[in-house]
Amino acid sequence: xxxxxxxxxxxxxxxxxxxxxxxxxxxxxxxxxxxxxxxxxxxxxxxxxxxxxxxxxxxxxxxxxxxxxxxxxxxxxxxxxxxxxxxxxxxxxxxxxxxxxxxxxxxxxxxxxxxxxxxxxxxxxxxxxxxxxxxxxxxxxxxxxxxxxxxxxxxxxxxxxxxxxxxxxxxxxxxxxxxxxxxxxxxxxxxxxxxxxxxxxxxxxxxxxxxxxxxxxxxxxxxxxxxxxxxxxxxxxxxxxxxxxxxxxxxxxxxxxxxxxx
Length: 262
Ligand code: ACM
Description:
The protein is α/β, with parallel strands linked by helices and 262 residues long. The protein has a single domain (2-260), classed as Carbon-nitrogen hydrolase (Nitrilase/N-carbamoyl-D-aminoacid amidohydrolase), CATH 3.60.110.10. It is 21% helix and 28% strand. The chain has helices at residues 15-28, 49-55, 63-72, 116-119, 148-156, 173-184; strands spanning 2-7, 33-35, 78-86, 91-99, 102-108, 129-131, 136-139, 161-165, 187-191, 196-197, 205-206, 212-214, 220-223, 230-235, 245-247, 250-251. The strands form four sheets. The chain has a six-stranded mixed β-sheet with strand order 5-4-3-2-1-14. A six-stranded mixed β-sheet has the order 6-7-8-9-12-13, covered by helices on one side. A two-stranded antiparallel ribbon has the order 10-11. A hairpin with a 7-residue loop joins strand 10 and strand 11 (205-206). Helix 1 runs parallel beside helix 3 (63-72) and helix 5 (148-156) packs parallel to helix 6. Bound molecules: acetamide. Acetamide (ACM) binds next to loops.
């Protein structure tokens, strides 16, 4: 199976140019699964709830979802895209999964970071695993990495690959994902963004790039630069994620002792 990410710098408030870049990446990608960053259609640093609402989209009925569906049609490809989703009287920081037959599902970010708490409601989807054929995948969005329970929940539900759209500003996540993969024996695709956003009176935000694909043994199969756009694909052997044995005596998930964890 071939999986990848597209690291780029979404332009704040420029939905259609951002969609165009996403569709160009889809057209240039050869593989089965492609992950895009968090809030890839709108940009990150909103100044008000009204602004966030204006830049959010309806899922799956909105025209943007349909443009992405059309770009995939006829190909054996699934994509994960981070976007601001309009709910009923609230917004979610979501990631959507679209496949050859169209819209598949949505994950709404559970652990909101910093000012996201002003614009978005905490996700209410829980952690879901989708079988996309060559693999079972689960979705996380950015700061969810900080809560090992999120990745664990997906591993316990059978995820082989964690798809992780991100807008990282702090340096720790790319290294931490090595641990998330090792402690769950799963692959992870962190698709981060690059570039800066300085809006209104707010401090300049600089996004760290370093998108990566990590294997179940903790090996970083590829890590992008901190500044350059990159469309990357790697061949992976999904069966590696299905072997939860650590040694002849230990099975990663079966050896858990949940009665002691509360
Ligand atoms: C983040 O959750 N965007 C850091």
